[in-house]
Design a protein that fits this description.
Length: 295
């Protein structure tokens, strides 16, 4: 139940320590959890606007991810590839304005990372400097090890992301399970280690077998956050619109925990019916000026 309470006590403060250790500015996120040894898994959800971020933050979710999933969930694109840096920046700024306690992580969109090192640094830096993010997430692979190190050295905390990386959809041929052969699983484990060594403070594992995610989690000191990666990660992330029942297409590993689309549809239909039938506006929604001298 979300009561908006901020009384977390000492254990909550203790849980920030790993984020601090890996370079995340924790000064305004006094309730963010994250200690791998803590008894409760880390919780992370996506949000793309201040209103939703406020609700998520009040529900004491640890991390709000401004995912490039905004492309398909709220911006009307067919995939995440058209999402621009400006779109993520503007949405990240809105989410940061709506969030007091959760860690705000901005997802770096397609081709904003990796084309050129100085451009990558500038792009990621703007998420912290201008949009108010605490950290950035990079869809990762062999090509992001060096840039993860550079960004971390410069004070830009990096959340890595391995397994299914949707920005590679055209090479993967769809949003398919990853790490399903021994070779592919070993590559994920090796890359996870390399990103940790490069300075990543956390790792998202998407759509990989639970036993692979479990092995990666055992192999790392930094927290793993799974999406379609089984129960053994240190935390879980899902797309906010999926859990709320607002998405058109929901991946097989997501769970719908509410029916916001149903509630919105009911409200809009009720409004239309009230206007069309003349029930709205009623007397209490209008006022009349008796002293006006109108022809
Ligand atoms: O863009 C996104 O929302 C993501 C999560 C699904 C991890 O990358």
């Amino acid at each position: 139940m979300c009561d908006g309470s901020r009384l977390r006590g000492l254990s909550a403060l203790a849980r920030i320590e790993p984020f601090y250790r890996f370079g995340v500015d924790t000064t305004h996120m006094t309730t963010t959890r994250g200690l791998r040894e803590a008894d409760e898994p880390i919780t992370m959800l996506t949000a793309y606007d201040a209103l939703t971020a406020r609700i998520i933050d009040d529900c004491e979710i640890d991390i709000v991810l401004v995912g490039d999933s905004m492309g398909t969930t709220v911006l009307g694109y067919d995939d995440t590839l058209p999402v621009t840096l400006a779109e993520v920046k503007s949405r990240t700024a809105a989410v940061a304005r709506g969030t007091d306690d959760a860690l705000v992580v901005a997802d770096m969109p397609f081709l904003s990372v990796g084309v050129d090192e100085s451009e990558t640094v500038r792009n990621a830096g703007e998420m912290l400097k201008e949009a108010g993010a605490d950290a950035v997430k990079l869809e990762s692979g062999p090509h992001t090890v060096e840039i993860t190190e550079r960004l971390s050295q410069l004070g830009i905390p990096v959340m890595a992301h391995l397994g299914l990386t949707p920005q590679h959809v055209n090479q993967l041929g769809g949003y398919t399970r990853q790490g399903t052969t021994t070779e592919a699983a070993e590559e994920i484990i090796a890359l996870a280690r390399e990103h940790q060594a490069a300075g990543a403070f956390a790792l998202v594992l998407e759509h990989v077998p639970a036993n692979v995610a479990s092995r990666v989690t055992d192999a790392l000191d930094i927290p793993t956050i799974g999406i379609g990666a089984g129960p053994d990660c240190d935390g879980q992330v899902l797309v906010g619109t999926d859990i709320m029942g607002l998405s058109e297409d929901v991946p097989p590993f997501a769970e719908q925990f509410g029916d916001v689309k149903g509630e919105m549809t009911e409200a809009v239909e009720s409004y239309r019916e009230a206007v069309e039938s003349g029930q709205f506006p009623a007397d209490e929604h209008s006022h009349t000026e008796p002293d006006l001298d109108l022809d």
